[in-house]
Amino acid sequence: MLSSKKIIVECKPDEILAKSLGLAKKEIAHQSNKGEVCNLLKKTKISLAMVDEDPNSSQPKYLSNYTLIENKHDVINLHSKSENKTILVLKPRLEEWILKRCKKSAVKPEKHFLPSNNVQLKDVINYPLVNFTNLLEELIKKNDDGLVYLKEQIGIVKSKRNKK
User: Fold this and answer.
1) Does residue 44 register a pLDDT over 80?
2) Cα-flanking dihedrals φ and ψ of residue 96, to 5°?
């Protein structure tokens, strides 16, 4: 049932990322591509989605309804005021985004049996997912800025800007 969903994601590794950030599986709607994410976001009450930028791919027209709010930690925060919906866009793709987070936080993907090359990572990120989950857990333990930012945007933790 879609009423319990909090976020729409476009692939299994994005779902693992959302779960690692603190969302329950039942709170995540998984679609197979960015177009399907946009279609589901458009026709449901779910107000948040997370997708890859995919700069060399055609983009869904629906994204033109959104305004840039912030571009921080290689996450583009887009918002539609009329629909009160947000899309978080990982730049340029999940694999590169994760590897950049690893570099900034001094985390070695190889420690989790994952390559440090984005093309190779894309080929193996789904098999087995436990390696990717373990990598994300290490990044979270290190309080990686990008993952903390995603948690803030998803509403899992309060933004440092809002704390007094």
Assistant:
1) yes
2) -65, -40
Cα separation values, 112 from 50, 108, 122, 128, 134, Å: 24, 8, 15, 11, 7
116's tokens: 């440090």
CA distance 53 to 78: 12
Which pLDDT score is estimated for 126?
83
pTM of the model: 0.91
Question: Within 10 Å of residue 125's Cβ, how many Cβ atoms?
Answer: 22
Closest among 4, 18, 8 to 86, alpha carbons compared: 8
Q: How many CB atoms lie within 10 A of CB 29?
A: 21
Q: What pLDDT shows up at residue 161?
A: 44
Rounded to an integer, what distance in angstroms lies between the CA atom of residue 47 and that of residue 85? 4
